[in-house]
Amino acid sequence: MKWTADVAVVGGGVIGTAVAYYLSRQGADVLLLEKGELGAGTSSACDGFVILQSKSPGVHLELGLASANLYRNLADELDWDIEYNPCGGLIVIERPDELPAMETFMQKQQAIGLNVSLLSGEDARRLEPNLAPHVVGATYSPLDSQVNPLQVVLGFAQAAGHHGARLRPGTPVQSLVRKNGSIEKLVVPGGCVYAQSYILCTGVFTSSLLAPLGLELPLRPRRGQL
Known about the structure:
The chain is of the alpha/beta class.
């Protein structure tokens, strides 16, 4: 069997379903392929923190700020409860010699526009009484938040479907076929998928998909990351 689409998205986690949603909202014919259930990989196993304080000043933090702004109104946009919690966040400092470096890092973040401050150990314990007595300080940002990552996936998926995207869980991509320097088709059980564009949203599994094509990506899993 042959399937066609403007865009074939491989991977049904938060990135894949978000891509499917935003492209289908703009009128693209999108086909999303997921080998298991939607959100069954990293998206259902991560902590769901939308944390900005850990982001290095520069494009990493700038993208983080844009993402955090998106999450604030995402539930209304998708008409789906993503369990958004604007709880704020702390990065704990345990040793006095770490304070100068953290303050310098924080000041660079502030220069880009992040609302973050340096707290004493006593003030940090007022916010989180379970912190150990030896904690000497913490940085705090009220912009840090948390979501339920699985609900984010399901919300994007439902909204993408409303815009005409075709979602196909239980459809593993067995191989990518290259022709004349580009991807010609995807091989799936029972047939092939042809598209004008292919977007791989497969996280750490991307390396294994691309390896047969002679492409090597230095991707490594990291606990807790989405």
